[in-house]
Amino acid sequence: MAARPTAPPPSPPAPPDPRAELRELAAWQRPLRAGFPIVAGHPGLAYLDSAATAQKPQAVLDAVHAYLTTSNANSGRGSYPWANATTALVEGAREQVKEFLGDPDPERSSVHFTSGASEGLRTVARDWLPELLADGDEIVVPFGDHRANLDPWLEARDLLAARGVRITVRELPRQAGSGDYDPAALAGLAGPRTRFVAATHVHHVYGADMNVHRVREAVGPHVPICLDAAQSVGHQPVSLAGLDVDFLVFSGHKALALPGTGAVWARGARGPAFRPGGWPGTPNTAGIASLAAALDWLRAADVGRIARWTTALAAVLTDGLAGLPAYEVLGCRTSLAAGSAVQRRGSIVTFRHHGIGSQDLGFILYSHGFMVRSDDHCQAGRSVRDGSVRVSLHVYNTLEEMEELLTVLTNLQ
Ligand code: PMP
């Protein structure tokens, strides 16, 4: 029997025209932007550093004010009404985090509040990982992502070594010439002693979705995965139902809540139970109130639309930079959108000027009102010498800001 002709692989969908996206969403975005007092109060400035920390909407500020002026007390201790209200606030916020993340099994999972993603990752490394590991085991962690997702795993290795338990730390392999993980190399590397993988959801320099489902496929169903979701939660829809991970760690302050907020979500299925150690002390109750309000705000605003908005703004910027030979946009070339000469990523665009250092470029841009990040971005394995300028966006940013930035960058060529 003649072999049936195979159909050509489907071509990837064309990316939406960013300017059409922005036109379509403009009436939705305008009132949301107006709800950020620090943005509305500084018309000459453009805040382009939301990957470091995001601005806060009035609703979040109001929730903190309401909490501190009506029921501020400690949580889990007293039995008078303010204490009960605070305990209910903290416990309710745990459930809200699960719901916001689309937790498919909230009865079995737990949420632990932290001061941010760094503390969250360190808590998993310090209070859970050592119990999982025995002499001769291996863990696989990223060497080119945020330092917060490397240092704690190395510290855990050293702590275990001091107890006579030797573990091997392997690099989560990346594809040559790009920042993307390499699932084929990972599948070859993972063996019977591979007990744990740490990965990142969205890269904080490249803005790239790191395709964590491919990491799961490569290591099989039994290895626990800890996901650093600092750059995805609050920026784009994140659903645990579609992510077969065991820990999801995020920063509340990058998701519109107050500084000093974050959380670890733990599935509690593979490996020992997650019991963050030690006496917990007084939680950051006002911060947790802000996180609850921020998640409500994000849900009402529609995180999917926020992602469309910021992706379109980032596309305008990357398209513009592609036409300026003095600049190089950093990131993975392998995932160029069809029909586009430059890659289109989430809400982060990082670039370098061939003749102007990143610190100088940062100063020049601030003299024009643009607040950008200009250093090594806390990327593991990089130093300030490798500096670049990062523009990171949220719902309050606008097309006008991108166009004015491109005008300034063009004049600096
Ligand atoms: N991971 C990633 C990917 C990040 O971008 C950051 C913050 N820049 C962190 C971890 C650390 O987060 P935090 O500031 O909340 O400790």
Give a quick precis of the structure.
With 413 residues, this protein is of the alpha/beta class. Helices cover 38% and strands 13% of the residues.
Helix-strand layout with pairing:
Elements lengths: L17 H17 L2 H4 L5 E2 L10 H13 L10 H20 L9 E5 L2 H11 L1 H4 L5 E4 L9 H12 L5 E4 L11 H7 L4 E7 L11 H8 L5 E4 L18 E5 L10 E5 L18 H17 L1 H20 L4 E3 L18 E6 L4 H10 L2 E2 L1 E3 L12 E5 L6 H13 L2
Parallel strand pairs: 1-11, 3-4, 3-5, 5-6, 6-7
Antiparallel strand pairs: 2-8, 7-8, 9-10, 10-13, 12-13
The structure holds 4'-deoxy-4'-aminopyridoxal-5'-phosphate (PMP).
CATH architecture of the largest domain: 3-Layer(aba) Sandwich
Number of domains: 2
Estimated share of beta-strand residues: 5-15%
So what's the overall shape? globular
Q: What proportion of the residues is helical, as a percent range?
A: 25-40%
Q: Please give the count of helices.
A: 13
Spans of at least 5 consecutive residues with low confidence: 334-339
Q: At the third CATH level, what is the topology name of the largest domain?
A: Aspartate Aminotransferase, domain 2
Kindly report the spatial arrangement of strands forming the biggest sheet. Answer: 2-8-7-6-5-3-4
The span between the termini is 63 Å
Secondary-structure-derived class: alpha/beta
The pLDDT mean sits at 92
What tags apply to this protein structure?
binds 4'-deoxy-4'-aminopyridoxal-5'-phosphate; 13% strand; four-stranded antiparallel sheet; alpha/beta; single chain; 2 domains; 13 helices; Aspartate Aminotransferase, domain 2; Aspartate Aminotransferase, domain 1; 413 residues; seven-stranded mixed sheet
